[in-house]
Amino acid sequence: MKHVRNTGEGRTLSLYFETILWAAVSMAAAIALFFLLQFAEEGLYDMYEEKFADRKTEAAVSAVQEYITKNSLSSGDAPVLQPLLRKNDLTSFQIFMDGDFIYNYSYGNNIDEALSTEESYAKWEDSFPLVFSDGQATAYTDGVSGSAFMNFILVVRILLSFLLFFILIWVGVGYILRRLQHLAEDIRILETGSLDYEIRPDGRDEITELQKGLDAMRQSLKSQMDQEEYLLESNRELITEMSHDLRTPLTSVLMYTDLLKLHKYRNTEEADSYVQKVEKKAVQIKRMTDNMLEYALVGMNTTVALEAPEDFSSVFFDTLSDFAGYLSDRGFEVKSDLSWPSVKIRINTDYLSRIMDNIASNIEKYADRTQDVGISISCRTVSEGAYAGIAVENTALAAASHEDSTGIGTRSMANMMHAMKGKFETEEADGMYRVKILFPVMAVRSDETA
Prior knowledge:
Elements: H1 15-71, H2 82-87, E1 92-97, E2 100-106, E3 109-111, H3 118-124, E4 126-132, E5 135-141, H4 147-191, H5 206-261, H6 268-297, E6 310-311, H7 312-329, E7 334-337, E8 343-345, H8 349-366, E9 373-382, E10 385-395, H9 408-419, E11 423-429, E12 432-440, E13 443-444
Parallel strand pairs: 7-9
Antiparallel strand pairs: 1-2, 1-5, 2-3, 4-5, 6-8, 8-13, 9-10, 10-12, 11-12
């Protein structure tokens, strides 16, 4: 039951059907062998007659003569020879004395009447002299029977055919058992934690489906463990960064509150400045904790309900208008290059709004107001499929303070895009900062051009 190893592609065959088919093939092969051996049987029988039949016939006649001599039989006692003739497997035995037919034995039966003349027997059968107590006679015979030899050959043919059948069945069963043993070995390897070990399908039946299912489970478990490791590492980094970044404003808050508590200020104006600094640091701490809370709520494994597919322009027209208006109110010059693609995408409006708010907030804090903020459409095709979205580009402010930046906002946006099956990308080079948000394309209208 040989199979060509493949990747599991193609229609799956039933293991039960494969087994029945292999059993039928094995049976057909055994029957074919049985009939092919018939040709060998004829050659073997010819060899038997040439090398063994004559000698056995001579030995049988000699045994008859010994019996006659030992018991001093006369020609009239010839019928008592029947058991001996049958025992020696002689097919026929006719005895003539002085031209008279005195005994006829044919295929195990003692026949009284003569069926022919001595000349007819002499023409077709071998003759042997027999000496009775009352004179010499002549015996004619066809020789010993070949039925025993033929029966032996028939038994050999049947045994060889059954042997072939059972060998083929054993090969088929052995193939299945080897595959199951390999699968059990694969499972033992996975049990040791070696999730990089790939289980390769080697057929198109239920065992193959089990192999593919186990490998899919391995990949899923490995992905889950990798994700958990990534999240643990991200949380460690977050805790380290937050503990460091929160310590500075908290230290300032404690310092100014101690100064106020101990009344270490020259006048009320200086006291008010301390209060303003405490308020500024408190706002900074609040912003950092809000970012941290949002990052915690929107993890990489967060599931979110996506809305029905909409035209790209319908999704982003109002969103980008509000985005550009917000930046314009804060002194930024916005330049847009919008060529709406004829595609549909799925989003979560709340997540998209929060992402755009974060982008606007980062531009407001870190972008150079003397340089334009660019908005453009971004479309591309990767191995996962086609994506469409927007790109926002600005010039980074060289003197901008990043003391309250932990990167949590960027991570939160990446997590929200991941939850919407999209991509979040950032690029920074030569003082330019670019962020892209891309969504999977759900449908392409017939009027779209290449």
